[in-house]
Design goal:
Bound molecules: zinc ion
Strand order of the largest sheet: 1-5-4
Structural class: alpha+beta
Number of helices: 4
Shape: globular
């Protein structure tokens, strides 16, 4: 149980996200291993709240801007089902959760490939 969330420096997170989206193997590996230290049997998907056993898969890493701290990004863990959604659906789902968590936050998510450095 528990929702996987890590905070990252925004500058690092943007680089990772952009490089990974452009096919950089190292950046992809780093992202996919963000929750490698998750030491519980299961986790709660950030998007849908469903419990997923880590025997099925580790949390899939998804980066979003930290609604509270401009200089940070959040790496959140998604279940296989949510992670497999088409990008726009995934964005919409994550946005809905962020809006619920931070009602005053204006969510502005940018496709990773177009992130500024
Ligand atoms: Zn999910």
């Amino acid at each position: 149980m528990g929702i996987p969330i890590l905070t990252l420096k925004a500058t690092d997170a943007r680089l990772f996200a952009r490089d990974a989206a452009n096919g950089d193997a190292e950046a992809r590996r780093e992202l996919s291993e963000a929750f490698a230290n998750w030491d519980r049997d299961s986790f709660e998907c950030f998007c849908c709240g469903k419990d997923q056993s880590i025997e099925q898969a580790m949390p899939a890493t998804y980066l979003v801007p930290d609604p509270v701290h401009d200089s940070q990004y959040l790496a959140v863990g998604l279940c296989l089902e949510c992670y497999a959604l088409p990008q726009l659906y995934r964005l919409a789902k994550v946005r809905r959760v962020l809006k619920a968590l931070y009602p005053r936050y204006r969510v502005n998510l940018i496709a990773a490939k177009r992130l500024p450095p």
